[in-house]
Each structure stands twice: as structure tokens, then as C-alpha cells.
Fold DUF6286 domain-containing protein.
Amino acid sequence: MNADRANAGRANESRVNTGQANEGRADMDAGQANEGRAGADRAGADRVNLEKTNADQRTRQSASASASPPASAPPPASPSAYGTGAGTGTGTGSGDRNPSVRVRRFWSVRRVPAGIVALVIAAVAGLLLYDVAAVRSGRPAMRWRDWLADQLATRPLDDAWVMGGAGLLAVLGVWMVVLALTPGLRGLLPMRPPKAGVEGAAGGGGAGAGAVVRAGIDRTSAGLVLRDRAMEVPGVRAARVDVGRRRIRARALAHFRDLDEVRADLDAALHEGIRQLGLARRPALSVHVRRPAKSKR
């Protein structure tokens, strides 16, 4: 009897285990089915998004093709249009024969000097007109105009105050003429413009056809770029690059390697950096390399 009970208990346990296994398999099958459906849904959504993206790209391409110039137009502008084409290289190539291009400098608007001059002239003219109108209406003239009239009437032309005032007015006039005839913006270096064919392609034959692209770089920014190039040279411990309108002066400290080798590598690196800047007028380069001063202890 005990044996029958034991066998019956084992049978019940096996049935329970079998039921649990069946439930586990059913749960796993359901989970896999759900994952498969979710993956299918994601794949379908990705396919729809891809089709939308392709449709948008085809629409943009068709729009750009309809707005593009005819086939006889020159090729589009390339990044090498500024400074990396012919006439901009360094070394022994033929491009060094004519490295500079005639490009006009940027003109300063000079709003502040023009505004100051306009305000001074307007104030003096308004005060003089007011005094003249007051005198015409029967009132006495202002003291400063009486004093100025007396001084101009009594002082000779060779008087020191008259000569000094005339010289000051002449200097101010010459300064204003110089400001009017010079472009200003000495801290902005003009860059090489694209070629004529590139400019025509950039115009697109529309309302902006023939427009010249003008670019410039600040001298401080150019000095920082060249300084970073100088610091990449092996052996350079510290560097300073001063960029002028006609000359670039580089000073470096070398803590190892031979000074002549460091100077040659630094000269080549800076020439390459100047070429990549694409300046319309290539400044002259002077390089000075020395050892750091020994500290006294």
C-alpha cells in the first residue's frame, strides 16, 4: 500500500512538472511571437520612413535640377578656389611666380568719425545762425562772436596764435581727406577670390549672377592659426606669430633638436599655413628660432 501511494505521489509530481514545463513553453512561444510581431512592426516603420526619405530626396533633386544652370555652365566652386589653385603654392612650383592677386581692400564705413564731424559742424552752424538771427532782430551779439571779430581785426597774420590755428585747421582738413581716400580696416586681410568661372557658376545665371564673393580674415585670427601650425613642429617649445599687412614675424623657442633643422621645418610649416590661408597678397615671412634662457639657481 505504501508503495502504491509513493507511485501515485510520483505520478502527481510528474504531472505537475509536465504542466509547468508546458506552461513555460507556452509563455516562451508567446514572448517570441510578440517579439517577432514587434520586430516586424519596427521593420515596417523603418521601411516607411526610408521610402519617405527617398521620396523627399527625389523631390529635392528634381527641384535643384530644374533650377540648375544649363550644361554649358562651368563646374561648381570647390574648396580649393581660395588659395589652393594656381598661383598660390609655395616651393619651386610655377605657382610661386605670381603668388599675389590684385584685390581691393575692405572699406571702412567710419560711422563714428563721420557722426562726430557732422555733429560738430551742425552745432557750430546752428549757434552762428542763431546769433546772426538775434543780431538781425535787434539783440546784441554774443560775447564770443564780438571777441572773435575783434581778435581777427586787430591781430596780424604773422601772429603765433593765428599761425597755430591755421596750422591746426590745415592738419584736420588733411586728416579728413586721408580718411576719405583710404580704405581703413587695417586689421582685416583680404583673401583670394574664386576664379572667374567659379564666380559665374556661383551666380547661377539668376538675379545674383556676376556677384563677386569677398572674404577676409582678421590678423589676430591668422596669427593664432599660424601659431598652432608652429607648435606642431617637433622641437618647438613656444611660438609667437605677429601678422602684419606686408610681413609675418615668427619667433620660436626650441628646447631640443638642432636650431637649423627646427628653423627649416618651421619655415616650411608656416609657408604651408600661409598658403592655406588663401590671402590675396602673400606677406613676407621672417622666422627666428633660439634656445630658451637658462634659469639661474
Remarks:
- Strands lie at 188-190, 216-218, 236-243, 247-254, 284-290.
- Confidence is low (pLDDT under 50) at residues 64-98, 196-209.
- Residues 2-67 form the longest helix (66 residues).
- The chain is about 55% helix and 10% strand.
